[in-house]
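Lab meeting, item 3. Inverse folding demo.
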């Protein structure tokens, strides 16, 4: 790769990384993360935006407090029909609402129906009882109105006007509502517009119609605009949305007409047009011309529409970090397999996390991704733990099998029957090595002590011996180590990297000699965060003159947290405050 190509690749990688979500890979073991967070989709098929809704109490017009819950207890079909008919009659005949509005409100407001039924005493004659109740107890018509627009009570309770009860008192709202209805937007989709762009319903007469007409004059069909507005209500706020207009122009420039948008947009979801524009720009930087880009989007609309391009950004960024070049990614997308992109991405991501979970080296993962990208995106693998159990193998052997032949992954997809693999001899070899290691420590084979130690010491004999030798090289006496690990065998259950990190912190950061491990071997069992927090707090207390100097390491670290706080932290008035600050700082690393 020449200097120009290298700079170009690094530039695009940086540009992609700022569009990646930091939640792309949620496993703490995953080393490849995006640099800047942005919205991530929770619905894997489309990009949906969910807002947390909370139930709130609402005073009814008749003075009875009602707590709304977003669930409705079962009501018999007969009772519901009678209640709906009574409400329809009241809204249309008594309140003079248009029949279509009254019918929509009565049939599509189950929470409100339930609320009325709870206030009616005569359950034998539901219809006449509700009619009688409504005659003397006028209702807040905005409640069934908003509910019939597709909003839950917890979503619309804050939208209810404080000084109005009757819909006819808010002609501005009704006029804009009828503009949307007459335009063709389904009534149960209008609630989303009211929730996300309430100012639309305060427009003066004729303004909303002009805004809708402006988009049509740009060449968009009315049916396409219906879906666009229902999915992205903010398009109706202010002047014509620049990103949306640019997006339509960009698609048109690559041969995609508004009819394509009409076909593939989902009314129930939100789209980030700016992010989608960025994705198209990325593909152009990769080398796609207009014709190729149009063909790719037509064949695989999910590349653009799944999470507004978020999935595609994440996928490209991961491929770059795993060593693929821009040209290789470009060639891959030119020959993208006939599979839905969202499904491909989820399979690929799961396979990638699977390889990390079985502790395959990143270099090997990169090699497999480079040579078998399509395979990883086509296999819906079983979970790692399930597969390890069903195959009766360890992670090391499973890694070796996949390295030798990645096509083996096809045998382990969801729904396939997986049985134990033939014994490779590794288990027997590992048992022999472990037996030798324990014998060298002084354990006598075929004794209860030996059997107990065999279970406590995890890993094969070679790994245990390497960890033992590592401690010897650090300056500990072989006899001392032997006695230490007999008391605390779990020390050798940690990797050499973890042991090295903990010992370095003990010697270089805390200033204790390596011999401290002989008297307090359990030090190596505690997490580095716990040790750092306790020692940082102890040093602060010592500086304040409220803690004895030269306390034993075990005294500071081994006691329980409640005891440590009571016995040490609370010695100083600001102790609890400093403790929390240190805890937040250390555990947020």
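The presenter then showed the designed sequence:
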């Amino acid at each position: 790769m020449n200097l120009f190509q290298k700079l170009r690749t690094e530039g695009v990688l940086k540009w992609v990384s700022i569009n990646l979500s930091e939640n792309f890979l949620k496993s703490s073991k995953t080393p490849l993360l995006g640099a800047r967070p942005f919205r991530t989709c929770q619905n894997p098929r489309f990009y949906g935006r969910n807002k947390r809704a909370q139930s709130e109490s609402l005073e009814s017009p008749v003075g009875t407090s009602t707590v709304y819950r977003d669930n409705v207890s079962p009501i018999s079909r007969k009772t519901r029909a009678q209640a709906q008919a009574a409400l329809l009659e009241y809204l249309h005949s008594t309140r003079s609402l248009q029949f279509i509005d009254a019918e929509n409100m009565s049939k599509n407001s189950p929470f409100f129906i339930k609320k009325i039924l709870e206030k009616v005493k005569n359950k034998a004659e539901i219809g006449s009882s509700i009619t009688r109740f409504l005659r003397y107890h006028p209702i807040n018509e905005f409640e069934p109105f908003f509910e019939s627009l597709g909003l839950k009570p917890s979503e619309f309770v804050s939208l209810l006007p404080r000084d109005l009860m009757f819909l006819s008192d808010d002609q501005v709202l009704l006029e804009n509502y009828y503009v949307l209805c007459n335009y063709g937007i389904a009534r149960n989709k209008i609630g989303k517009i009211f929730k996300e762009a309430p100012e639309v319903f305060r427009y003066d007469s004729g303004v909303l119609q002009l805004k809708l007409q402006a988009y049509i004059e740009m060449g968009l069909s009315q049916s396409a605009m219906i879906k666009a507005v229902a999915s992205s209500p903010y398009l109706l706020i202010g002047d014509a949305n620049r990103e949306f207009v640019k997006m339509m122009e960009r698609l048109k420039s690559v041969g995609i007409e508004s009819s394509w948008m009409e076909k593939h947009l989902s009314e129930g979801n939100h789209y980030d047009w700016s992010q989608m524009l960025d994705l198209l720009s990325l593909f152009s930087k990769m080398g796609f011309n207009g014709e190729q880009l149009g063909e790719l989007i037509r064949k695989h609309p999910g590349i653009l529409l799944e999470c507004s391009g978020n999935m595609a950004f994440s996928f490209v960024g991961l491929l770059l970090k795993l060593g693929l070049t821009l040209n290789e990614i470009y060639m891959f997308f030119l020959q993208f397999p006939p599979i839905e992109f969202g499904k491909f991405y989820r399979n690929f991501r799961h396979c990638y996390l699977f390889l990390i979970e079985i502790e395959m080296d990143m270099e090997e993962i990169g090699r497999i991704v480079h040579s078998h990208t399509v395979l990883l995106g086509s296999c819906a693998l079983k979970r790692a733990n399930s597969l390890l159990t069903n195959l009766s193998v360890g992670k090391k052997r499973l890694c070796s099998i996949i390295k030798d032949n990645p096509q083996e992954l096809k045998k382990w997809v969801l729904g396939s029957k997986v049985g134990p693999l033939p014994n490779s001899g590794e288990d027997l070899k590992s048992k022999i090595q472990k037996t030798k290691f324990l014998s060298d420590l002084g354990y006598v084979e075929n004794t209860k002590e030996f059997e107990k130690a065999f279970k406590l010491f995890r890993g094969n004999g070679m790994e245990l011996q390497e960890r033992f030798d590592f401690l010897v090289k650090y300056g500990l006496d072989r006899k001392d180590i032997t006695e230490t690990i007999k008391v605390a065998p779990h020390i050798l259950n940690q990797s050499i990297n973890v042991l090295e990190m903990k010992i370095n912190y003990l010697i270089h950061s805390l200033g204790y000699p390596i011999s401290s491990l002989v008297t307090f071997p359990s030090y190596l069992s505690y997490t580095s965060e716990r040790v750092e927090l306790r020692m940082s707090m102890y040093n602060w207390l010592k500086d304040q003159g409220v803690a004895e100097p030269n306390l034993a390491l075990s005294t500071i670290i081994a006691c329980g947290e409640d005891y440590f706080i009571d016995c040490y932290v609370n010695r100083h008035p600001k102790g609890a405050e400093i403790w929390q600050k240190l805890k937040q700082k250390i555990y947020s690393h």
